[in-house]
Design brief:
It is a single chain. By secondary structure, the chain is an alpha/beta fold. The protein is built from 21 helices and 15 strands. About 55% of the residues lie in helices and about 10% in strands. A five-stranded parallel sheet has the order 7-6-5-11-12, sandwiched between helices. Strands 1-2-4-3 form a four-stranded antiparallel sheet. Helix 4 packs across helix 21, helix 6 packs across helix 8 and helix 8 packs across helix 9. It starts with a helix and ends in a 9-residue tail after the last helix. The model has no long low-confidence stretch (mean pLDDT about 95). It binds one RNA strand of 77 nucleotides through helix 14, strand 14, helix 15, strand 15 and helix 17.
RNA sequence: GGUCCAGUAGCUCAAUUGGAUAGAGCAACAGCCUUCUAAGCUGUAGGUUAUGGGUUCGAUCCCCGUCUGGAUCACCA
């Protein structure tokens, strides 16, 4: 039993013995003792003053005395105001470290065949433009949440719904057909997603010019936007696409292939992957059938012009269109079809959509629609809505070119990592391949940590002018500490030291105890991160752990310690810390180099 | 306008979910490498937690009002 449970039980018994009342376990609050007071764990005694009918100080003392007498691991106590600070014995911490040392994957719960199955949808790009910083946040969050859920014993399927059809891709297709001169990624030496994205921007320029020209002839903005030749050409393309026109389908296929090849490169660089990929072009028709079925069930309505609607006014929402008057599908239609296919294919216990908070309304509606269609899982879908990434100028807009491109950003990060590393010269003597592999790890560590350390729900700021730091609360700082740890452990092994035997310690220093305390809460942090879907908790924990370790490393010598018992103990705590860093960072999708 | 989210040091972010004197990093200043990797460690300075009320032993956190910023309410995705 862990120390918190022991204290909880002790307090429970104390209150019963001293004041003759049963107390609800939830009212027993235990927290880490603040650094400025003596003690390891603290019980908040305010809730018990009602039962004791004494002041908080006296109540704390009563309970403290009881705990000392009845709970062996508690060696001392003091009360400050309403806080009962408990000192836990060195033996307890020493034993705890030993348990952790001998656990294979400390903090990780292995799945078994009975583990619930969670499907996580993330990434879900449109195929008309390359990935940017906003997509990076999505991809990193999705991947990390998948890893964290796996770490708590869930079966996880990572999925991606590719929005490969629709007016957006037709815009790029039209512009390419008009101005592309048969350019291909090969012919211009450019990644396919970037090439297609260029034509998306070209389309927008053309469209804007046409609208301006038409408005100059006296049309209103709305009229001009409907009359612009380019948009009508794109719409015509979409219509022909839905009608299976071979020419359009071929062009669509070709350009999408270019984009996929480009995405694959970016995904690989980011280190994210998927177990199952769905394409909107395959699922939208299933969605349409579902909508028509809903119409027959009487849960949807058909308008005079032929469009199909869901009336959600009883749910406090508006009317929502599901099929256009020309019978074509909208975004929502596709999501219904995709959901149905997924549940047919997998025994999903829990569905998680990693999609930005701008789509909160969309998922509210989706959930209700699936429920109306009779799917019992409709109401249980979880929209993990994360905040946008903003630039100092405000929101990123693909069409206006105010985006931070994913590939560019990664390249820049690698460049900074290389320069910094070369300046420090710690990798001198390594081959170019080894060096660039380490530079890559550090660059991605910096980028990923920068994004994941922020509470996912919050809007975050990224300033491209100031490159991401490598010092302080950063990924490289944590990686660096890991490299240091590995270096010490290598030296110890080389010297033939064997440190895995149980050490006998009744004289741990406060810094050492602090470290063990920090280390020991790792499983709780993972559990918390999983239940709140927050990689940021893991990131900030890793930082705290590493900061604690660096102080320890600075204040004590490990290999230079002459007392063998102490030396073994310090190697143990060093090894355990290293393992947790690696596991924790792994949950964020960040690799740790053995040296840097 | 309706609904939802946010506002914490100059900047970027934390705060164990209602607990003790609100913490880190960056930027600034001052120290620490003959010693296990200085991408490190230590110190100084920086705050009316947007604002006004309320709830209670106790509020950055919960409730109400105000201000500011953002998202959303499409036959877009």
């Amino acid at each position: 039993m862990n120390i918190e449970s022991l204290i909880r039980e002790g307090v429970l018994n104390a209150v019963k013995a001293l004041y003759g009342t049963e107390v609800d376990v939830d009212t027993i609050q235990i927290q880490m003792t603040r650094k400025e007071f003596e003690g390891d764990l603290t019980v908040v005694v305010f809730p018990f003053t009602r039962m004791s009918k004494k002041g908080p100080e006296q109540t704390g003392t009563d309970i403290g005395e009881y705990l000392i007498a009845n709970v062996p691991s508690i060696s001392k106590y003091n009360t400050v105001k309403g806080f009962l600070n408990l000192v836990i014995s060195s033996e307890y911490w020493s034993d705890l470290l030993n348990i952790i040392l001998n656990e294979k994957d400390f903090g990780i719960i292995q799945k078994d065949e009975n583990s619930p199955l969670v499907m996580i949808e993330y990434s879900s790009p449109n195929t008309n433009k390359p990935l940017h910083l906003g997509h990076i946040r999505n991809n990193l969050l999705g991947f990390s949440i998948a890893e964290i859920l796996k770490g708590t014993g869930k079966q996880v399927i990572k999925t991606n719904i590719v929005n490969d059809r629709g007016i957006h891709i037709c815009k790029s297709m039209y512009a390419w057909q008009r101005e592309g001169k048969n350019e291909t990624p090969e012919s211009v030496g450019k990644k396919g997603d970037h090439l297609v994205g260029d034509y998306y921007v070209k389309f927008d320029k053309l469209f804007k010019k046409e609208v301006a020209d038409l408005m100059a002839t006296g049309l209103s903005k709305e009229e001009a936007e409907n009359a612009a030749p380019s948009i009508n050409a794109a719409r015509e393309m979409l219509r022909r696409w839905e009608a299976n026109d071979p020419e359009i389908r071929n062009l669509w296929k070709t350009m999408n292939e270019w984009v996929y090849a480009g995405f694959d490169v970016t995904y690989k660089k980011l280190g994210v992957d998927f177990d199952k990929i769905y394409y909107e072009s395959d699922t939208y028709s299933v969605g349409r059938e579902e909508v028509l079925r809903g119409l027959e069930l009487g849960v949807f309505e058909r308008n005079d012009d032929g469009s199909v609607w869901a009336n959600l006014e009883n749910e406090g929402l508006d009317k929502k269109i599901l099929l256009r008057s020309d019978g074509t599908s909208v975004y929502m239609t596709q999501d219904i079809g995709t959901a149905k296919l997924r549940y047919e294919e997998f025994p999903i216990d829990h569905m998680v959509y990693v999609v930005g908070n701008e789509q909160i309304y969309h998922f509210q509606v989706l959930s209700i629609l699936l429920d109306k269609l009779g799917y019992k899982w409709g109401k249980s879908l979880y929209h993990f809505s994360y905040g946008m990434v903003e630039l100092p100028q405000g929101k990123m807009k693909s069409r206006e070119g105010t985006v931070v491109d994913a590939d560019d950003l990664i390249e820049e990060m690698v460049e900074v990592a290389r320069n910094t590393s070369n300046e420090l010269g710690k990798l001198d003597g390594y081959s170019e391949e080894e060096k660039s592999e380490i530079h890559r790890m550090i660059a991605l560590g910096a980028l990923k940590y920068f994004i994941l350390k922020v509470d996912p729900k919050k809007t975050m700021m990224f300033n491209p002018e100031e490159s991401i730091d490598f010092n302080g609360n950063t990924g490289p700082f944590i990686q660096y500490t890991y490299a240091r740890i590995k270096s010490v452990l290598r030296k110890a092994s080389d010297a033939g030291i064997v440190w895995n035997s149980k050490t006998n310690n009744s004289m741990l220093g406060t810094k050492e105890i602090e470290l063990i305390k920090k280390v020991s809460v790792f499983p709780e942090v993972v559990a918390e991160a999983a239940s709140t879907y927050s990689p940021a908790l893991i990131a900030n924990y890793c930082y705290d752990l590493v900061k604690e370790f660096n102080q320890f490393y600075h204040d004590f010598t490990i290999l230079g310690e002459t007392d063998a018992e102490k030396k073994f103990f310090r190697l143990q705590i060093t090894e355990v810390t290293g393992r947790i860093i690696k596991t924790g960072m792994g949950l964020l999708g960040i690799e740790c180099p053995e040296r840097m």
